[in-house]
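I am going through a labmate's work and have reached the protein record below. What it holds is a sequence and that sequence's fold in token form. Please read both lines and tell me whether the tokens look consistent with the sequence. Do not assume that whoever made the record got everything right. Thanks in advance; the entry in question is below.
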Amino acid sequence: MDTRYVRLAMLGVGLAGAMVLLSGDVLVKAQEANRAEDAAVRLAGRKIHVDKSTGKRRELSQQEARELVATLTAMTTRSERTAEAPGGAALVQLNGFDHVLVGRPNADGTTDVECVSSVDAAVSFLAQQPKSNGQE
């Protein structure tokens, strides 16, 4: 009987561990969704978009900010996939970019640029006040 209780206890501990791991994954996904929405909120209302018809800077709408964050997320998310090639060689396909060049237009017609490797860095740069005063 003692081994039966030990096995049940081990099974219980294993199931509890699995539940903790699975629930942690759900929290990360929820946090990622909130991070994207927080980033869009930080960018909405910033004058970082140039209107094609007038050529002047205008504020980013909430929808445009969400689309920009989604694009930046897709560009800065790197993944790799390994496939078997003929002859036993391995082929590694890399998707995404290591760094992305982001530009922010200034009122004087110049553009500040920065090379970023994450959405957070891009949003931080785009949300800043322009450093350029056109005297460069």
